[in-house]
Specification:
Strand order of the largest sheet of chain A: 2-8-7-6-5-3-4
Structural class of chain B: alpha+beta
Largest sheet of chain A: 7 strands, mixed
Number of helices of chain B: 2
Number of helices of chain A: 13
Shape of chain A: globular
Helix content of chain A: 25-40%
Strand order of the largest sheet of chain B: 2-3-1-4
Number of strands of chain A: 13
Order of helices and strands of chain A: EHHEHEHEHEHEHEEHHEEHEEHEHH
Number of strands of chain B: 4
Oligomer: heterodimer
Largest interface: A-B, 24 and 19 residues
Shape of chain B: globular
Strand content of chain B: 25-35%
Helix content of chain B: 25-40%
Chain lengths: 389, 75
């Protein structure tokens, strides 16, 4: 089996991740911090360890500004719905995932003004176009760091500088890049960094969050949920400090045990080393695809300007048919279709049929890439799919 | 009345208690996370218990950080 769906969820995980989760379930297990007995404190230590690991990875100002949640979607909803008010103007790109686009479209109906800046067909964004879209009432720029469809990196550091100069907050959706591409919140001018645990941070599903920078006025953030936090229990109002204000209810502590181990593994290996390894595989795959007649590869075709996610189509074959054939005939697991990002596919002119997406990860190998290329060649050149019909 | 041995640092959240624990252990100062004594606060969370003799050293260590404490009380 060849797993090329890392852009959705990374798999396999480093051994330390399931080990940390099993250790938590077998030996710790208690509710983090709520009860102050030894297991409760040990559990809180595990969660705090994950906070520290995330803060170190992204150069966050303080581990207590890491607010954990279920995934990047929840984190994006927290900051978009919690900070934007009717009359505010927000700028986003035409390459966004629905985790940004759907909350923004819903906010638009409540009176938030929205500008979607067009990206090139390859998925690239001109920072000048973002600057030109800024209005007196612009309060936020919300961008993905890399497209989940085609992997192209957006110039977040350039936009971060513009955002600083113009007094606008920059929210970055790092779902596709956290752990795979270096991110330095403070140097890149990122005010809100939303991440997910189950992709290149190598944690389990059900973990994610947002790091809240020092320019964000925390008292203006309305939480998505309110409830028990293990703090200020004498009061019936939600605490107004981080991370508790954004973390009501018992957290996924076992998941965060895994996330902490995943991030530590990434830190030990080094993001730059992981990126170099994935770039070599990505360029091998892009070059191999371009050599096959009938294959159209999307994006910039340059691994140094994207993540390890590659989107392509084969002649007029339906991506869904290709996905099923690859799974059944070659045990190659990928993702086909629109990838929850209709805006990106419209930008790439691949809407509504979508693309075939191969997402490599740190455990992918050159041999696997070559086997995948061979399978694509069978489809494109030998017409393997039409023979089977 | 007998003089107690300990003081407790009251903080806003468990995460802050853990930050202080890490800071103090790093400075070689003994401490322990315990439930907040009922007579001090109705906060259901944890606090950091220290030896009274370390009080000045502890306050000095915390002052150099961005950690905010609610108070420090003898127990």
């Amino acid at each position: 089996m060849i797993y090329l769906d890392n852009a959705a969820t990374s798999w396999p995980k480093p051994h330390s991740v399931p080990e940390a989760m099993l250790h938590f379930l077998k030996d710790i297990g208690a509710n983090p911090g709520r009860s102050a007995h030894r297991l409760s404190i040990e559990s809180a230590r595990v969660v705090y360890g994950a906070r520290e690991a995330i803060a170190e990875l992204f150069n966050a100002p303080d581990p207590l500004r890491v607010v954990f949640g279920l995934n990047v979607t929840e984190a994006l909803n927290l900051v978009l719905c919690g900070l934007l008010r009717p009359g505010d103007h927000v700028i986003t790109s035409s390459m966004e995932h629905n985790s940004v686009m759907r909350p923004l479209r819903a906010l638009e109906r409540t009176g938030v003004e929205l500008t979607v800046v067009k990206c090139s067909r390859e998925g690239f964004l001109d920072p000048g176009d973002v600057e030109a879209a800024i209005r007196p009432n612009t309060s936020m720029i919300a961008l993905n760091h890399a497209s989940n469809v085609v992997g192209t990196l957006l110039p977040v550091a350039s936009v971060g500088q513009i955002a600083r100069e113009r007094g606008v907050l920059l929210l970055v959706d790092a779902a596709q890049t956290g752990g795979a591409v270096p991110i330095n919140m403070q140097a890149d001018g990122i005010d809100l960094l939303a991440f997910t645990g189950h992709k290149s941070l190598y944690g389990p599903m059900g973990t994610g969050g947002v790091v809240i920078g020092q320019r964000v006025e925390v008292h203006r953030l309305t939480p998505l949920k309110r409830g028990g936090t293990g703090s200020r229990s004498e009061r019936e109002e939600q605490p107004d400090f981080l991370p508790d204000m954004g973390e009501s209810g018992t957290p996924n502590a076992v998941g965060l045990a895994g996330l902490g181990a995943g991030v530590r593994w990434v830190l030990d290996r080094g993001v730059a080393a992981i990126q170099a390894q994935e770039q070599a595989l990505t360029q091998r795959f892009i070059d191999g695809l371009r050599d096959i007649a009938g294959v159209t590869v999307y994006g910039g075709l340059d691994a140094s300007r994207q993540t390890a996610t590659v989107s392509f189509n084969i002649d007029d074959l339906a991506p869904s048919d290709v996905g099923l054939w690859l799974d059944e005939q070659h045990a190659i697991l990928c993702r086909v279709g629109l990838h929850c990002a209709p805006a990106a596919h419209k930008t790439m002119k691949t809407f509504p049929s979508g693309t075939i997406r191969f997402g490599m990860g740190v455990f992918s190998t050159a041999d696997e890439v070559d086997v995948a290329l061979h399978a694509v060649r069978r489809l494109a050149v030998e017409g393997a799919l039409s023979e089977g019909r | 009345m007998t003089q107690g041995l300990y003081a407790v640092i009251i903080v806003y959240s468990t995460s802050q208690a853990l930050q202080i624990e890490k800071l103090l252990l790093g400075e070689g100062i003994t401490c322990k996370l315990i439930p907040v004594p009922r007579q001090i606060s109705t906060n259901c969370g944890v606090c950091v218990r220290i030896h009274r003799r370390d009080r000045e050293m502890v306050l000095k260590a915390i002052t150099g950080t961005q950690i905010q404490i609610e108070g420090i009380h003898d127990v």
